Amino acid sequence: MGESLLLEPSLAQTLAVSAAKTSKLSLCLSTQCSLAAWIKDNIRKKECCFYVDGDREGICKCGYQRIHHVDDSIKPENCLGETWARHRQEVPTDAYGDIRFGDLGQKIGKYVRVSSDTSPELLYQLLTEQWKLPPPNLIISVTGGAKNFYMKPHLTALFRRGLIKVAQTTGAWIITGGTHAGVMKHVGQAVRDYILSSDSMAGQIVAIGVATWGAIHNRRTLVHPEGRFPAHYSLDMQSQGNLSCLDNNHSHFLLVDDGTHGCYGVEVELRSRLERLISQQPLGNRESGVRIPAVCVVLDGGPGTLSTIYGAMLNGTPCVVLEGSGRLADVIAHVAGLPVTKVTLSVIHQLMKRFFGPEYDSFTELKILEWTKKIQDIIRMPQLLTVFRMGEDNHGDVDVAILQALLKANRSSDSVGRESWERQLELAVAWNRVDIAKTDIFTEDSQWKSSDLHQAMFSALLGHKPQFVRLLLENGVCLRQFLGDQTTLCDLYTQLPTSCFFLRRLAKRVQTEKSRRSQTLSPRGAAGRIISLSHVSDEIHHLLGSFTQPLYPPPGLHSTRYPKEDVAVTLPPKEQLELQASPDPNLAAGRVSDRGGETLRDPGGDLFLWAILQNKKELAEIAWEQCRDCMSAALAASKILKKLAEEEEDEAEEMRELANHYERHAIGVFSECHCCDEERAQRLLIRISSSWGQTTCLRLALEADDKSFVAHSGVQALLTQIWCGELAVDNPLWRVLLCMLFFPLIYTGFLGFRRDESIHRETERSAELLTMESLTGSQACTRRKSPVQIPLGLKPLTVSTRLVSLFTSPQVKFYWNILSYFSFLLLFSVVLMIDFQATPSWREGLLYVWFISLVCEEVRQLFHEQDGFGFRKKADMYINDMWNILDVLSILLFIIGLAFRLTTRLFYAGKVILCIDFIIFCLRLMAIFIISKTLGPKIIIVRRMMLDVFFFMFLLCIWVVAFGVAKQGILIHNEDRLDWIVRGAIYEPYLIIFGNMPSNIDNALFDRKACSVNGTEPQKPKCPILNEDQMPAFPEWLTIILLCVYLLFANILLLNLLIAIFNYTFQEVQDNTDTIWKFQRYELIKEYHSRPAAPPPLILLSHIFLFIRRIVLKRPPNSYRTFKEELPEVEEEELLSWESFMKDNYLLSCRQQQSQSMEQRITDTADKVGTMTELLQSEEARGSVAIVKRLTRLEEQVSQSARALQWIMDTLKAQGLHSKEDAPQLASPGELKRSESEPNEPHRQEKSEREKTFYHVNARRLDYPDSTIPRFPVVEEKVPWEVDLILYSPPVLNGDSQEQMDGSEPDSVKSYRNPGGRTGMRGRGVLTCLGPNLILDPVLTRWRDSERSALEFLAVWDQVDGLWTLPGGPVQSDKPLPDTLLRIMGQKIYDRIKAKVVEGTKVHEGYVDDVRNTDDAWVETTVLNIHLDRRSLLMADINRVAENTLGCVELVQAENTLGCVELVQWMEVSRRTRMCSYQRDALRRVAELHQRTL
């Protein structure tokens, strides 16, 4: 039985854990079922459906054996005359789910087998919606060597560290080939190192492997029709053969299937399409126009990698090549930065041979020609190519190189000027890379306006990126402009994270409002309501308290605005401040009228409040530094956070810690202010803050329970000053008491007044100024302000004002009330003990009048409302005070006792109740003496100990009742008298604790006469059970043992426990009693400050006066400006500016203390050591690179020396004194390398001249438009027809007809030869005819305005290429203008423009480098400028056409859609206009014609 009892808790725990696991398992199964259903419906695989024998017997051309084909595929008669490649069908995939590597199961990823024809949109949906990956901020496509290759350890470490850093900081997706070899293995090991060193999975790296399904080893373990959750995959490197294993460090796998086995490269096209699709998605789901950037990182690599790089750069994707990683990466790195003319075939031959080693021998001349062409095209795009060279300082680390490559590509894209900088800033914010923004964006060359940074600021705030927020503020963001429109602030609240507790409260409030107004609103109107600032204001009002006004008043009542400009004020010196009188009512009234009912808001405070409500410490800290009213903001934050901590349990501890943090901030700022100027600091405490609900710092601190702030010496000095009233603070107590009794002493100077002290100080200061002027002879001080002028508020006190000031001082009121209360208690005791007659005497009547005055005062305190709480809040605060509870209890008992006393039957009961009530009145004395600095803290300790006593009594009652009941049951048999049962079971055991030993437990003390045998005598207890000898029959040994055990636990254990509890409470409270006493002192000071001057019972006269004033005359109550003061606007601005200056001093001191702390010193030392280590490593790498360069130069010098010696020998052997060849000249290292690779090339001078010649580029692009056959690769040096190119065998293209030629030219085209040189394509291509195809590009220009501020031209939007073009095209022989202009403008405008042709100016005529050009057909253009008068009728008609298309232009640019309307606009002749190169050059010529620059 005992064993089973021991097992029950374990069983319960097991059942609870099992239930939790079952719930989690059911949720997981539901997710898996949903994923499986989606994949079955959308994802396909490919399989061979037509078996054809391949090179090996029994093996199909697809690479699979016959047994791996379905039965229907082995029927060749069904597919006679058809090729095998067309017979691969798509069926639902059978390989998907979770993949687990290894036996321990630490690494779990996701995988799916997809067809090579799968839509990339489906794959992106799978990644983001089904696999729940957050959309990336960056795509890093890592490509390179697919086989294991060697990299230097330092470069390997740099690559891994940089790749992970950029992926972690930017939230990027890393996309690789996914196999456990080559560059993919390096990426996987980088991810593994990060996972092992990371403490949490919050920053998990997303590494997506896109691999070929048919090349995966052990892929059968992944196949299951219903998916595998998980599939156990093992890395079997030894038996993989020609296949590859998946990398165990990738997180997701897309296994691309084209129905083949053992074929690599199947995934390349799908991977490219997927990366292109992702790069077209909006960055961060925003409509800012910024798309997800992509970058290609290259390590090692071969010919396939070159094709990948070439295709990526043609699509605008920047590439980062790591020099030193081997093979192709090193080839590109060595030619990067060279002119294209110097990247020749011989140079590529040499580099290929050097870096590819034995593999070079397998390369054909045609392939190297093609690769040279691609490398030349890559070199032509330097904005997209970045080479990371280890040891160079311009990049630092790999992550910096990757991000700088993206920024460089964005900087050189179509978006130029300010738009380009803004896009780069958006990228840097999305990546959260402040270092990149500092070095590459916020440079000396970039000039930013605040409006340019608003979108980035909004993104940084929503993304919780405090470092970026600080950087943007430092670089020009003006919060007044940023939050000038309340829509921005409302959007910030609307887009709070869903996990934010405050957002849930807002949503609940909005829903409640919808429900309340659903009857008056239409369904559409009710559903369309969103979060507004009024909802925010209501919630903040709830958190701050009812004593505040709404921060954002509802529309229609008040409007809020920010200051139009930052107020710069000059603070007056302390002397002038002390001379200032109280605010002028007229000035204050004028200020309110000037504002026109508008609430002046603080933008820094609004942003600070937004951050505090999310519990974001870093953002809140930055915003608090921008607050104008920083002390009120800190105290309000403390109040809000403590209120939120009461309602939100998950983050309660963090919120309380942050609340204490801002309380310390408020204390720090106030300490700075108090040390500088005490009077100004005190004014800050009672100044009404318009930005924080029309309340004061002091009120906020009290409501936030910020005891440390209230206990500050400056706050206490203010409270002491209020406590003393007009009396001087340093008056001895005995003088005050003596003047209370003999008030004429105040006219003798016996008692000091603050007004007298202020006048005395001003007099002394005036005398000092006069003395200084007499010594220096300067009158500047008197001219500035005469010291004799004393404001009216500082006039000396009169006889009556001195008397009023004495008796209205809260201190004097308090002493009179103490005297009155002691007199009341004395009278009460006299009545109870001496003069309590049946008929009330005059003493008793006076007692009742006195009591009535006390009751009236309590009623006045309950209804007196000076803080703006309202009666309900005031009543709630009144009841929650323990002393007020004692007051109410004493009043109720007195009324009940008085009612009983006035009756004859209950006369004595009434006296008893009054006696008990007297005890409560005496306890009330503790509240009176809480003001005492000596007794106050002790009273607080007593209150805390009373709570401990109640908990102790609970434990004590258990032992008392246990022992008492057992003793009573053993000794007494069937006692039926209740009073004696209670006496025996409770009262006697309780007395035993204090040493009163019972006599009935020990037989030796038994007295038969002291008890009643049957319990018949009511005054005697019942005797114990007696035996025959009339002696107690109970077991004496048992009762004695019980008594000993009871005394052991009750007297020793529990009493010592009580002592220990008291000691702990005393020690705990003793350290804080002074703070708590100072905090509670405020309420007593406020009470006596508002209390009438007369003590009870004379206070009844004041109550009658107040009743007549408020109820009969209905006059408003007197306002007490001592605790609240509204300053004029100018004076308030001066005070807030001074407070901001003090805040800056406080923050500076905090930073200094932090920098001098031991922890910061250790951190700084560690950073310095790390920096030194990196510098040493980079210096070592730089040294090794320099040595390599020097060795290379030395080899080149030796090679040239050998050739020179050979020449000398040849000359000596020859007949005669002169050689047939010139002596070799000493050349530079770059020319040496080229001369070594080209020793047999004869005409070097002719070659250098050709290097300076411009060759067409677009006409040699490998991809010909509207054709699947690529051009023959024509490298730069082989473009001229004069240069032989033996391998030149371009295809022929004539419209839709395509054919491959063997190099011979047909007779029909021998007469046509492209003047620009070879193009790699013969025939007419897509052009209309062989030879020159003439086009006309009319440039219609106008001046923008009469001042000729800008030159504009008529442009047409090319929807296919996304460019602005000239309205040109082919020209028919009978028409002077192209048909494009007729189609766009219509016949009427066309005819009128045609009439202007004769007035036009021919700007350019000649060959056009067009992508449609071939060897036999090319485009030639004539650029004609027709300048129009902006006031002519023709211009009006053209403007009408342009205006009709303006809406369509905006739609196309915003949505990137294709429409059927040709779009026309007047565009500025500027380099910002997106146009093709030759038309941009034509615009440059037109601008020069009109004496303008492009």
Structure description:
- With 1494 residues, the protein is α/β, with parallel strands linked by helices.
- It has a 10-stranded mixed sheet with strand order 8-3-4-9-7-6-5-10-11-12, with helices on both faces. Strands 18, 19, 20, 21, 22, 23 and 24 form a 7-stranded mixed sheet that branches.
- Helix 2 (120-130) crosses helix 5 and helix 3 packs across helix 4.
- Mean pLDDT is 79; it is low at 1-22, 519-529, 564-597, 780-793, 1225-1252 and 1456-1460.
Strand content: 5-15%
Mean pLDDT: 79
The DSSP helix count reads: 52
Class computed from helices, strands and strand pairing: alpha/beta
Give the termini distance in whole angstroms.
99 Å
Helix content: 40-55%
Strand elements, count = 24
Radius of gyration, CA atoms, in whole angstroms: 47 Å
User: Which word captures the global form?
Assistant: elongated
Report on the biggest sheet: 10 strands, mixed
The strand line-up of the biggest sheet is 8-3-4-9-7-6-5-10-11-12
Low-confidence stretches: 1-22, 519-529, 564-597, 780-793, 1225-1252, 1456-1460
